[in-house]
Amino acid sequence: MYRGILGGIVSLLLVLACGPAAPPAPAGGGGAPAGSGSALLSDAAYRQQVIEGARAEGMVNATLHTSWTPEGIQRLEEAIEREYGVRLRINFTPIGNYAQRAGELLSEVAANATPSFDLYQCSDTTAALMQQAGALEAVNWKPLLPEGTPPDVVAGNGEQVVIFTDYFGLMSDPAVVPESEVPRSIKDLANPRWRGRVILFVTGTSYLPWVIRMGREETFAALRAAVQNGAAVDTYPNQLTRFAAKEYPLSLTGFTFYNVAQVRGIPARFTPLDFISVGNHYVAVVRRAAHPNAAKLLAAVLAGPEGQRISAEVLGNGNRYYPDSREQKLEQEWLAAGFPLFSWREHPDALAWSLSPEGEATVREIDQILKGG
User: Fold this and answer.
1) What is the pTM of this model?
2) What CATH number does residue 234 fall under?
């Protein structure tokens, strides 16, 4: 399914590449990007213009992390009102599959239709896809972000803001796996000791950092050996369910689902494998949005200190760009333990490769290995 979605997205990108180019935006997030409508306004005037525009719109259609609750969404509405003095209704839809949502958006862009959502949550790779297609609005975030927001949350020439950090690594059951025996490499998953006790994430893109750092054949061999050692394959939510049921004490998963385990009181620890695989999760305002100003205010609050507190309490998520965050402290601990760092945002050449025909072919091959091929 993923291959079909990704193939469709790539095809759409080829079509869109023949259309009008998106207006250029300057590097960095501090200035006024082209198309932001703020080039001739002071920061204060621009902020007020966006607030008044949002007041007139009255609502925002947003597709965000699947685990947001009605109470959490209400708290975000209240945070927007406190920060900007405007009450907005957030029409929340769970994001589900990032690639599928990106494909839907690019289909709407190709049809010159109004997007279904004003604000999209996205990963490093899906953000890059939407950015390449000219589907995202470059925003002058500086006047909008609440006080105390680190400037480094702004990314993609102002087209995205980071709302939380994720890591891809190993969640283990401390009651079953002693800390001294926790695997430190993806190659260790083939150890007969762990036969039938490992569950892997189902989507091949998550393993591309290993291809980039370890090499194609070495990564393929490690994954193939793990599958031959009885490793199961499943989605993040199903992995967590099966981990909690004690079916698999080792789960190669995302840090956000370790956070969910913590919130639910499920005993677990989280460690990198081979290196620290960092992924950023963003929100982005799309071009031709029905409620663009309201979307900007919601995005700014999500990236700001109060939105971060709400997200931490509701979802368990945090942001590595906040100096005292748990994520930043964990990174320092992992670095001190000898794990190097890989971040898509800090390796744009690797991100470009992941979207290339070679990167797409690599994902297809990994998907086949995970299926037992």
Assistant:
1) 0.80
2) 3.40.190.10
